[in-house]
Amino acid sequence: MLNRRDAVRRLLADRGGMLVVAGLGQPCYDCFAAGDDPCSFYLWGAMGGAVPMGLGLALAQPERRVLVVTGDGEALMSAGAFATVGAEAPENLAIYILDNERYGETGGQVTHTARGADLAAMTAAAGIPRAQTVHTEAGLVDALDALRSGAGPLVVVLKVAPESQPGALPPQDGPHLKRRFRRAALGVEDK
Amino acid sequence: MADWQEDLYQVLKEFEVSQVSYVPDAGHRVLIDRSLADPEMHSVPLTTEEEGIAMLGGAHLGGARGVAAMQSSGIGNCVNMFSLVKNGLFPMLVLVSMRGDFGEGNPWQMPMGQAVEPVMQAMGFVTMRIDRPDEVESAMRAACTMVFKSGQAVGVLLTQKLIGAKAF
């Protein structure tokens, strides 16, 4: 099975001006392990917020690529947000769901994707037709290109191995993360 | 009734709000209609209110100002998402059209209606109630100043004295 750290590192290795919102838990650690960047906003809570946060950012910055990196548990919690994204259809928004079929932070309990739920089919049915599930290395290569530059909105559900990863904890200070993001992305110096 | 809603929309325009997120309610009818017709606005209907809180957090990261509009029941759906606002000190303007308040005829609206202010205050919001049409413009200007100049989280409660209680 594909390794989540490797799959995120390869995507963010040449991220350019990409703006990143990472959902809580492992996706935050994956993004941080790939190389911290002020244009990465790490959610340590607010579960279900990653996709709608990416939407607001994408609408505010239509010329920038916005990437949401999140997990299957977090994505399932805000399943309705995919219908909102489908309706607004921002062309600059890409959503990368690392699907290990587990709640990794709470002991590895299975999510509904281990029991029949298909996030790519759900998101496609919610109005995001460019949604796919990737299981293989060959599929990942194409998916990484789509996530970087394919017409959005698009969703890539990457099936990844559920094994635990080395610790990599990003900053938790919310105002710091917010200010550095706005400074780097907008050139705004908040008071 | 529409006049105060027009005043409200004009204040949002004056403060350069460009994103409106909402789950519909009658008290927000003009805001919804005007924003949908306004080419300078992203007017985004949601499936559930907490999407709007996260969405406006993202808008702030991207340099845009927004407002979340919902009925009082929607505040209950937002509580954990307010963690983003409180922990990140995000500016946040929430317009709440009240049910479960003055003259309510549906008992199912009462629990959440009465919980709006304590819940919002517990999650770090300043709340202000507007009871009269002639207060709307000045109260909205005050709220927008607190949110967009001082970076605060403010809940503006459009009460049933202002909107009128729904008849059953």
Structure explained in plain terms:
The complex is a heterodimer of chains A (191) and B (168). The model of chain A has no long low-confidence stretch (mean pLDDT 97). Chain A has one domain: Thiamin diphosphate (ThDP)-binding fold, Pyr/PP domains (Rossmann fold), CATH 3.40.50. Chain A has 8 helices and 8 strands; from the N terminus they run αβαβαβααβββαβαβα. Chain A is α/β, with parallel strands linked by helices and 191 residues long. In chain A, β7, α7 and β8 form a beta-alpha-beta unit. The N and C termini of chain A lie far apart (47 Å). In chain A, the strands form 2 sheets. In chain A, strands 2-1-3-4-8-7 form a 6-stranded parallel beta sheet, with helices on both faces. In chain A, strands 5-6 form a two-stranded antiparallel sheet. In chain A, α5 packs across α6. Chain B is an alpha/beta fold and 168 residues long. Chain B has a single domain, classed as Thiamin diphosphate (ThDP)-binding fold, Pyr/PP domains (Rossmann fold), CATH 3.40.50. Helices cover 46% and strands 20% of the residues of chain B. Chain B has 8 helices and 6 strands, in the order αβαβαβααβαβαβα. In chain B, α7 links the parallel β5 and β6. The longest helix of chain B has 13 residues. Chain B starts with a helix and ends in a 5-residue tail after the last helix. The chains are: A alpha/beta (191), B alpha/beta (168). Chains A and B meet through α3, α5 and α8 of A and β1, β2, α3 and α5 of B.
List the helices and strands and how they pair.
The complex is a heterodimer of chains A (191) and B (168).
Chain A: H1 4-12, E1 19-22, H2 26-33, E2 40-42, H3 50-60, E3 66-71, H4 72-77, H5 79-88, E4 93-99, E5 102-103, E6 109-110, H6 119-125, E7 131-134, H7 137-149, E8 154-159, H8 174-186
Parallel strand pairs in A: 1-2, 1-3, 3-4, 4-8, 7-8
Antiparallel strand pairs in A: 5-6
Helix pairs in contact in A: 5-6
Chain B: H1 2-14, E1 17-22, H2 29-37, E2 42-45, H3 50-61, E3 65-71, H4 72-78, H5 82-88, E4 92-97, H6 110-122, E5 126-130, H7 136-148, E6 153-158, H8 160-163
Parallel strand pairs in B: 1-2, 1-3, 3-4, 4-6, 5-6
Helix pairs in contact in B: 1-2, 1-7, 4-6
